[in-house]
Amino acid sequence: xxxxxxxxxxxxxxxxVGTRPVRPDGIDKVTGRARFGADMSMPxxxxxxxxxxxxxxxxxxxxxxxxxxxxxxxxxxxxRKDFTAESDDVLDNCMAGAKALYxxxxxxxxxxVSAKVAKQALKLIAVDYEVLPHVTDVDEAMKLDxxxxxxxxxxxxxxxxxxxxxxxxxxxxxxxxEAGFAEADEIVSRSFKTAATxxxxxxxxxxxxxxxxxxxxxxxxCTQGHYMVRNVCAPMLGMDIGKLRVTASEIGGGFGGKTxxxxxxxxxxxxxxxxxxxxxVMTREDVLRATGPTASTSIDVKIGMKKDGTITAGWxxxxxxxxxxxxxxxQFGAMAAFAPYNLKHVKTIGWDVVTNRPKxxxxxxxxxxxxxxxxxxxxxxxxxxxxxxxxxxRLKNASTEGAKASYGPRFGKIGLTATLEAAKAHxxxxxxxxxxxxxxxxxxxxxxFGGDTSVSLSVNNDGxxxxxxxxxDIGGSRASMTMxxxxxxxxxxxxxxxxxxxxxxxxxxxxxxxxxxxxAVGLATIKxxxxxxxxxxxxxxxxxxxxxxxxxWEDGHAKPAGPNAGKFPPMSLAEIAAQASNTGGPIxxxxxxxxxxxxxxxxxxxxxxxxxxxxxxxxxxxxxVFQDAGKxxxxxxxxxxxxxxxxxxxxxxxxEEYIYGKDGRLQNPGFLDYRVPVASDLPMIDTVIIExxxxxxxxxxxxVGETSIVPPLAAVANAVSAAAGVRLTELPMSPxxxxxxxxxxxx
Amino acid sequence: MVxxxxxGSLRVATEGRAEVEVDAxxxxxLLDRLADAYPGIKPQIDRGVSxxxxxxxYNDSWFxxxxxxxxxxxxxxxxxG
Lengths: 747, 81
Fold this sequence. Notes:
The structure holds two protein chains of two kinds. Chain A is 28% helix and 24% strand. Chain B contains two helices and five strands. Chain B has helices at 27-37, 42-47; strands at residues 2-5, 19-22, 49-53, 56-58, 72-76. In chain B, a hairpin with a 2-residue loop joins strand 3 (49-53) and strand 4. Chain B is globular, with a radius of gyration of 12 Å. Classes of the chains: A alpha+beta, B alpha+beta. The interface between A and B is large, with 51 and 31 residues.
């Protein structure tokens, strides 16, 4: 539909969508009945453990597994030699090949009758390492004399003469930034650094693999995408995709970190070699050393502004290290950083860099929070220098429909202005602040996408509905799919049960990521319900002896379309279902689609913080999220996504940090030393849902799962900088860093 | 002909041009013709791209129609978490 067309949901009175029913997985999760990754067990099951490199960078000369294999109770040992598939980065990350590339890199694995035996066996594996120089800092890794991880990963976009650790270069923007800076009354240039942070999901990676002698296999796994697990693992094992059935467990958090594989191919190989089911569960130390995290960054930014608040030009050069393999999300940081603003002159440059750290994994809106952090920090500083209201400046420059985004396209209908206006009108914005307290504002943007999606909806004989989707439920998708099906069919929420089907039950489904599920699976659910409705109208037409076209569907009933169609009492869904065997057989609706056209999303965050000038400790006093959801299907879940993103961003801003020693080993692989915020650290996160419908979805839904983590780094940094009286330029803003900044400013 | 905006770091393959024209009626033709006309872009197309058509992002749907006046922008493959 054209952007100026009326949305099909305009004026529609929703009966189920927009309400807050009890979540369908709630009872199971609070009573312990829900089965997570480590809860699956099988008869004869072995346990698998992984041997990990203690070195940040080392050539693997040889691995001798003979003593481990001879240990009673050991049933299989696996090294890279067992994987004969063509090498790629994902496989190499799961099991090191020629080199160990980071502290914690898997080099061998054992399946044994008990954890005790498996751990004993790991000690008997002799790995002959040639320890190599290492590098873990992004700026150091770009130097010409830095240790080189790979000789052949740099692509054609990188100019000759740079370190081979520089993998790819990106550049976006339009206009002439130098001309823009020449128009400015005030220019601020700053350099920033952000630490690598982990997704911090509470449930560690876990799976159970069972491969039979006929080569058919089953895998139960905690993942954000079991179709992805199937499609990635089967080729690694030399299997046909159809011979591997993957079932997703409940999931205790993912946030992007469970969009790839780590243990799964290893468990399958151990099962193949041992002929027994094999369970593998990571420790927290394994999780922190060898999975995730996001990139650490080093960024230079320069922005010019007129006295009236008009931003005349923006420029940034961004360096992201994504661990030991190509693929940091720097391109998204470079695309998203200036997206909230309608700029005539803008340019961003991004460098993807490898270091001796674990391969980064996606983390909510990958790469965007760091970009927003630097841009929003400098805008905040410019507003302060020019004595301008921080919200008014953002409103003055905000991207609106038709604005050319800094990454190229013109925006359609977007809700950034609505979030800013809601923030300006909110009592939080005018609330008084005390001594050593400051208020920070930030905007943020994320793309969202759709992708391959399959949904099947069965009409049961008693009029209830069984709905099957193929995306692990990490944020309430079973509730929202149930609600959209009930809405479309005109039946109560309790009449629909949604399950996550295994990979043999439905067509391809992309991973639960990209804030895609409520949009794409929701769209497919609505279409599947409409497919079932068409069939039910046809059955009613048969019973009444009239044309199918003369039957309409209203409030859960088939009805004659008008007086000319005949006088028949409405036929309920339950009545049609009860007669299904007599009228043509079972009734089901399906929809399979590559859902394109996801709407982008914007948010504005507001944070109040207090700084203790004696210790540098920061306390978050108040926090409010304003975000465009398009249409909030289940507002409580939407609020939960807003709150969760804000809290993870607060942790990123204040506490969380991968700390490496001079030996290149991670110094804080546990939740005591890697400090995520807990409830007692935080105020209640207030939320305001804005609804600017997405033209690409029948109800106007936009994804909300990622945008909420984009603004908090800057919102917190701006609040802390205001409270401390000095601009903070490095995350996390831990007490020593804040104190040092205060002391330096005083000196 | 369709005008396609090319992001900065790929412009070495288009002799510095920020916008190129190709004869394409849908997404598949667009990517094929871009790779034919500007071989330097092909490695990135093989690594993965998304295409913004009139402000909406498309990843894989080959037969998405592209109108003559459409705004078309080549983007790196959009992923998420």
